[in-house]
């Protein structure tokens, strides 16, 4: 029995009953693949269900506001995925008559759709023999064939794609692609895989060479950047507050936040008050008090945010103030969403 046949047999016995596996509708497959990029299924599944319920078709998603999409996406991270998803929904609904392209070459032209997603949709929905290569597949292939080249290098990416194509099951590509990803998620796990119960153990080169815990190989990540955020939770004399929309190409684009002062290091209430005055952000500041002595450390892939929230009370009314009870309506980073849930006014 070949490698791919063993994967298919294992999949038939062990696959999880996930909702997108009950359909070949490209809209559902596309949604699930976009949401599960860099996201565990346990975390992504509730979001998938929310989106399908509110946007049952690509036309419904295209017609939504970006703000509503970002609100539903809140907490899932990597928000560019949501913005790209909205752009692609508009393209399909408005330019392609509501129909997804039925082949890899045209799918990969869509915004936010890369090699992996195009391969997944083309194979699962349309039976095109395109291999998928995600983190789970890298791990299975690296171990089974004892490949010690780094998976996150241009040379490694090209090598593993070619290897995946060589060993894929073209006769049942839909189940095979889902099967090898599922195999990596459930059987060939990153830590402490149960190799003795593995149906591939007899042919696994890494197991035979004692290399399972050393594969796959990754190049070291770039240096982590430290940033120091100070959010101003402002209250005027009518108990209204302020939110601002993040602009530019940095993190959390188009999400809302409390007015932000970013510093080079930790600062105290006097420095925050001085910076408010320097920037002429507010008038009639009555008091500035911190909510916590210790920062909230929010870790992103390439940066760690050391964050403080400051209550700023004013003696005047804010012309564009927002009642506090309306704050939860806005799409915000999970860091701020957690603060809003925790603090009661």
Automatic annotation (TrEMBL):
It catalyses: Hydrolyzes free adenine bases from 7,8-dihydro-8-oxoguanine:adenine mismatched double-stranded DNA, leaving an apurinic site. SMART domains: ENDO3c, FES. CDD domains: ENDO3c, NUDIX_DNA_Glycosylase_C-MutY. GO terms for molecular function: 4 iron, 4 sulfur cluster binding; 8-oxo-7,8-dihydroguanine DNA N-glycosylase activity; adenine/guanine mispair binding; metal ion binding; oxidized purine DNA binding; purine-specific mismatch base pair DNA N-glycosylase activity. InterPro entries: A/G_AdeGlyc_MutY, DNA_glycosylase, Endonuclease3_FeS-loop_motif, HhH-GPD_domain, HhH_base_excis_C, HhH_motif, MIG/MutY, MutY_C. Its EC number is 3.2.2.31. Its cofactor is [4Fe-4S] cluster. One of its GO terms (biological process) is base-excision repair. Binds 1 [4Fe-4S] cluster. The keyword Oxidoreductase does not apply. It comes from the Bacteria. Residues 35-186 form the HhH-GPD domain. The keyword Phosphoprotein does not apply. Pfam families: HHH, HhH-GPD, NUDIX_4. Keywords: 4Fe-4S, DNA damage, DNA repair, Glycosidase, Hydrolase, Iron, Iron-sulfur, Metal-binding. Adenine glycosylase active on G-A mispairs. MutY also corrects error-prone DNA synthesis past GO lesions which are due to the oxidatively damaged form of guanine: 7,8-dihydro-8-oxoguanine (8-oxo-dGTP). Belongs to the Nth/MutY family. NCBIfam families: mutY. This is Adenine DNA glycosylase. It comes from Flagellimonas lutaonensis.
């Amino acid at each position: 029995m070949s490698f791919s046949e063993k994967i298919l047999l294992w999949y038939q016995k062990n696959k999880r009953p996930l909702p997108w596996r009950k359909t070949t509708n490209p809209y559902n497959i596309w949604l699930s693949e976009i949401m599960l990029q860099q996201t565990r299924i346990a975390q992504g599944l509730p979001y998938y269900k929310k989106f399908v319920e509110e946007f049952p078709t690509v036309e419904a998603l295209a017609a939504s506001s970006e703000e509503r999409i970002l609100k539903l996406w809140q907490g899932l991270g990597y928000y560019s995925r949501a913005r790209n998803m909205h752009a692609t929904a508009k393209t399909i609904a408005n330019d392609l008559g509501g129909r997804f392209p039925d082949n890899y070459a045209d799918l990969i032209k869509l915004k936010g759709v890369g090699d992996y997603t195009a391969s997944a949709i083309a194979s699962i929905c349309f039976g095109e023999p395109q291999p998928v290569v995600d983190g789970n597949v890298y791990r299975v292939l690296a171990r089974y064939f004892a490949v010690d080249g780094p998976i996150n290098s241009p040379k490694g990416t090209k090598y593993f794609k070619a290897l995946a194509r060589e060993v894929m099951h073209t006769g049942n590509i839909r189940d095979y692609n889902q099967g090898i990803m599922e195999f990596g998620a459930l059987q060939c796990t990153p830590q402490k895989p149960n190799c003795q119960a593995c149906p591939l153990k007899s042919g696994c080169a890494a197991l035979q060479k004692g290399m399972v815990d050393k594969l796959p190989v990754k190049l070291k990540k770039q240096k982590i950047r430290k940033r120091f955020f100070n959010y101003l939770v402002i209250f005027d004399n009518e108990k209204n507050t302020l939110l601002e929309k993040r602009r530019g190409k940095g993190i959390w684009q188009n999400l809302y936040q409390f007015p932000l002062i970013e510093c080079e290091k930790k600062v105290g209430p006097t420095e925050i008050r001085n910076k408010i005055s320097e920037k002429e952000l507010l008038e009639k500041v009555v008091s500035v008090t911190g909510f916590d002595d210790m920062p909230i450390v929010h870790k992103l892939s390439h940066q760690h945010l050391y964050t403080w929230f400051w209550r700023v009370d004013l003696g005047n009314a804010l012309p564009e103030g927002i009642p506090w009870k309306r704050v939860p309506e806005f799409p915000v980073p999970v860091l701020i969403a957690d603060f809003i849930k925790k603090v009661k006014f």
